[in-house]
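I am still getting used to backbone structure tokens and would like to learn alongside you. To get us started, please write out a protein record for me. Start from the sequence, derive the backbone structure tokens from it, and show both lines together. Once you have written the record down, we can walk along the chain together:
***
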Amino acid sequence: MKKQKGNNPAVKYKTKRHRRLRSKNLVSAAAIFILTFAFWILAARESETFDPLYASIEEDPSYRDGVFYIYDIKDYTRFDGYINRARKVEKENNEAVAVDVELMADINFVEDRGYGSFIGHPYIRQSMLRYGGVFEGNGHTITWHENAGNGMFVCVDRKAVIRNLTLKTDPIVWEMDEYGVGILCMVNYGTLENITVEGRIEGTQCYVGGIAGINRGTIKDCENRAEVFLSGIGDYGAGGIAGLNKCKVLKGEDEQNPVPAIIKNCVNTGKVEAPWEAGGICAYNDCAFIYDCGNEGTVTAQYQKAYIYPDHPDWYEYAQVAGICGHMGWNSIENCYNTGKISILEEGIQATHGIAGDTLDWVCTVSGCVSLKGTATGRMRHESVMELEEEEFRRWKDNPAGIPYRANNWQFDLEEAREKLSLAPLAVSESPLTRNQAGVYLCEEFCLRAPEGFSISEVSPFALCMEAEPASDQMEAEPAGAQDQNGWQMWLLRLPEGQTDINDDLDENGWITKDTVHELWLGISGAHWLHPSFSWEADCHVERTYATQGTRIIDPKNCLVHYRDDILAQAAVGENGEMIDNVVAVPISGNMEDGYQVKWLLLFTNKNNNYRPPLYFVKDALSGFVYLPCQITAAEGDSLYSIAKDLTGEGSRYAKLAAYNQLDVREPLRIGQILRIPEEWLADIP
């Protein structure tokens, strides 16, 4: 009988069995292969020998003719690895990290993880540690890693250029207590151009900027739309474009001609907040320049003062918060504007600034800058800017040359002065003898006579104001010099009882010195608002002026005048006298034996241009101030007749002087004899 193929049960059984065995073996082999491959990868990672990069960047298919083309996240990640490897392997070769880039598409690190699993690789990281080439963004957008510790670059080299790029990020949080951090880079030595950043960046005890933490090169045509936030104690700040804008001389560069740090034609629209130092463009600008920039975002300081040295609680800095630059060093700001609200969260006396703080040092230049009126707090501000109402501001932006520039940097404001200086009420009543005389004010504590052409008025229970009298309608023409003096003012203010004590600062002989007066000045709470920037003994003048009547000095007590040295003051205020440099005088009563007292503060300013009046006006005004009771000491050759003639111009009034002092008119005066002067004579009343 012929056998039929395929019908043998044994054969069928054997075939199925073989199939099952063969399938099982294939599965086992695949499993072994996968496990072996996984083990190899893990072992490779553990030993850091696995490298997803090519041995050389020239071998990478994305590298052509000296340019690396980035089309997707994998290309970007490989390029990041090549640059970081070059930095580590070829430390002294600047060209190794100077590879040019063309970004050919948008990249999103949040939606497309790509090579994210290789972030633990020794060279593939979130940031390029150092870059020196030209990174052409071609207008594309990079959406950065979630919860990234820092931005795209750590250091951008001097010859590097990064341009035409938008960088979006969820919060970048930098918690190290040093250096700086920005969404694009930590520090820039090169050129950043046409960069836009969005999102939020947070730093702790470091300089924080929207674009760069620290700029030591050039940033131009950039915009920050991100929130910039700084926390922690320290001598740092936050800025919309850069935290710190300051030059640095690198190895091989000319120390005499350093490469300046420049921020030009940039705009901030994001919110900026820091403990004490913040600016819409940068927090601190030193050995650097800011040109043609604008701030449209809110800028906020958290505290009135910064206790930046935890181990020294008595050392602090005042808040510096402004639309463009919070704190100025040696630098220049030109043609910038601010429309953002500038504020300090903590209640207190510090003013904010439309453009910049600390602008009144002779090493600073601020010109052509405009702030929207009402954006900065306080009228007693130290900055040389033009403030415009909203409609004027719009016209200025459309045509800056169409509105003549006028500085409006500082105005004396009595109500604000009461807060900053803690002024006490005058607590005096004008004598009936002078109530009808505009040029003299007599009260129970002092007599004040105004120079010719000036009048004195009690404008508030807290102040007297001496200023030029209004021109008469009958006057055909103002006398020579009258137009100049129309803005001159002297404010007489009372200091709180016990606020000042100069008796501990006298010299070894008990005399008042220049240093004594400087310490007195610094001891007046809030007095820094009346003076351009912090002053030292070396850059101040202190003069003594004595009260006079007729041809005679009637009050030998000191009336001390405190003002900036002429040369430094002229350098500080510029060619047009646009910056503040007021004069402050403190009449001092008392003597070495009984101690000295300071009750009054006299401030001289010009309400038209906010610069100090001429010193001759200051001295003329001070020569008319005398404490009561007023006494003179008879000298050799003095008589009642000669004293009356010196004081009033009429010797025949000697009988009044004798009666006032209960003296016999026939009795000669003794050398050293003390005579009191009739109050009506001090008021120059016949």
